[in-house]
Model the fold of this input.
Amino acid sequence: MSQKTWGGRFSGNTDARVEAFTESIRFDYRLYRHDIRASQAHARMLAKVGLLTQAEADQIIQSLDEIRADIEAGHMEFSIALEDIHTHIERALIAKLGDVGRKLHTGRSRNDQVVTDVKLWMREAIDELDLLLRDLQKAFVELAEREREQILPGYTHLQRAQPVLAAHYALAYVEKFQRDRDRLADCRRRVNILPLGAAALAGTSLPIDREFVRAELGFEAIAANSLDVSSDRDFALEFIFCLAVIATHLSGWAEEWIIWSTTEFHFVDLPDEFCTGSSIMPHKKNPDVLELTRGKSARVIAMLQQLLVLVKGLPLAYNRDLQEDKTAIFDAFDTVQSCLVVAAPLVRQTRFCREAIAARLNDGFLDATTLMEALILAGVPMRTAHETVGQLVRECEQRNCRLEQLPEELFPRPEVKASLGVTKALAAFRSYGSTAPAEVDRQLQQWQQRLR
Ligand code: ARG
Done:
């Protein structure tokens, strides 16, 4: 008899090359716990509606526990002849229980089974990502606390723009990672809808109880349309999109700190434990972890593209193309997870080069915009004030000096000279959400409480 769960209508054996081509056990083995959990819930339901006896369901549930232990002990041999994890587990069950095992797949199909397993896996994956992101937020909050007094040049176009508190800078990333967490939480709502019970595509004529399975597996709701279930991968697209946004946040930050760790910038001292050396240049300390964080974002973005292209143009309902969703889902998750695992300790162990930053803080006219605002407060129309400060900056460039060092008579209102210098410019900020010290303190306290 065929090893296949679908062998009945075939007379010839599957070509070995086709088995190698169509298998997914290589990557879907990692759904084994979720597959077993879903099957146990399914068996309980079958007993409840009378499609299994309670004794049969008990046997199945216990045998599935044993199979899980076998897999965890490395005792299950994976074979491409058995295609995927679902078939491996069902075959192992039949090997243990014979005809009782042959009843488990009643009222379900691999099409609804696989989505259920992936969703159970994804719920855990989202919860793990949330913890990792939260820890990274905490690392940035700690950075804000450590560098509370430190002023940094803020940039636009990578040109010096206005001064910002280092704490304000660190909290900017806390905000980004909070949005990442919120997005994942929103995605989780749609992940948390039960597919099982859709069967192959049309439902079943058997008296299954989907509400029972929903409650058993802790899903929020039951997917309403069976045709939709076996074709829907929206939740996976959203999941990978969330991951791609996290990856771009990490990549931008990594790029920034790569630049900041250069001799030219000398803003941060990266921890030795997170850098590597050169095999030829003895003096080198390279920011490889940050470079790989930047580089790995390409994979995650590519996986989003891959899944979008995969689902584009598929007619309803299940198509085997969908088996390929898992390589994208797992790869994107593994990549982002690996980046997050090293990001938080790297942030915790990085030190700002306070003196080097301070030594050049007065370069680049960081106080020019505040000077313009001081003129506005003194009654000068904005456009005139802008023009005036622009001319003063030009004057500085000719004299090779800072705004503060210009003679008093060049200023249309002498009192505005009091706002010059980076420290005073920083202290002048006041708007909500700005880098004003009181505002940053308030926000820092909020985050400390929120992440406690
Ligand atoms: N391994 C398959 C997948 O990942 C399971 C579903 C198979 N369904 C089927 N009709 N061949 O999508």
Q: What stands out?
A: The domain at 111-149+158-359 is CATH 1.20.200.10 (Fumarase C; Chain A, domain 2). The beta strands are 151-156, 159-165, 193-194, 221-222, 268-269, 351-352.
